[in-house]
Amino acid sequence: MRILVTGSSGHLGEALARTLRDLGHEVIGLDIVEGPLTTRLGSVAHRATVKRCMAGVRHVFHPATLHKPHVATHSRQDFIDVNLTGTLNLLEESVSAGVESFVYTSTTSVFGDALVPPAGEPAAWITEDVAPIPKNIYGVTKAAAEDLCQLFQRNQGLACMVLRTSRFFPEEDDDRNARASYADDNLKVNEYLHRRVDIEDVVSAHLLAARHATTLGFRRYIISATSPLQPEDMVALRASAPLVVQRRVPAYAALYARLGWKMAPGIDRVYVNARAREELGWQPRYDFSSLIERLQNGEDFRSPMARLVGAKGYHAEVFAEGPYPVE
């Protein structure tokens, strides 16, 4: 089966292309830069390029995007061109080509200001029912592209799914204070409690979304690691995260002490993946509890796919203030 994967030189694009190729599919990998799984060079913003890639394609996976790290280095028009016009090009050409399913990779960043409650309030329990309040051009264009997918499912009958993924990139955090306060692995493992997911699990969610797209119709799903935290934890979690985590995952404390790691003093939001697990049958393998067990056994907490894809960076240049500039 011929499948188009956009952004095939990026983290998720490469992981998707590798997995689909290993499953025996013919993968058309489209990206603006060369990569081991990229077969066509070009931008989704160029309609003719998209059209040339679509011949014989049965399924489209669309993770190509300008990301949050590009907000300070690219114009708003760049974001419109790539994230919005690029998605529109793909949707229209998918309809013309008779594509069976279209899976759009969105982001939990669309929630924006809804993610951080006012001081003194409980941590936010983030489900798909929370209304997004985008706070930058990245969030605005990703949310608008989601709406385009919904429009094409409703009006053109294109089976579309939207997956709002949480963090899976291996690059260092852009927050200078976070980098100074935690070892990088420590910071990332902490995030599996509330806002991180392994790329192998992201890939499996995409494959399931494509499989169920024609029967479920349009859906939006949060794709994040299954958290051991519960709604009743949200008040204490904001101010006393170590105590809450100790109650939910008692084994973590001794391991962290041995590694010289520390838990965040407070956590402000938890992404909830229940709908994806229930409706897609998604079974993410990498969560905070399983990572604690892996680390106890001396294993790497990252999946084989995460280690294979590795870090890629977001810019050709190096910035003195961190892995990428923040607007």
Automatic annotation (TrEMBL):
NAD-dependent epimerase/dehydratase domain: residues covered: 3-213
Pfam families: Epimerase
Record-given protein name: NAD-dependent epimerase
Annotated source species: Dyella jiangningensis
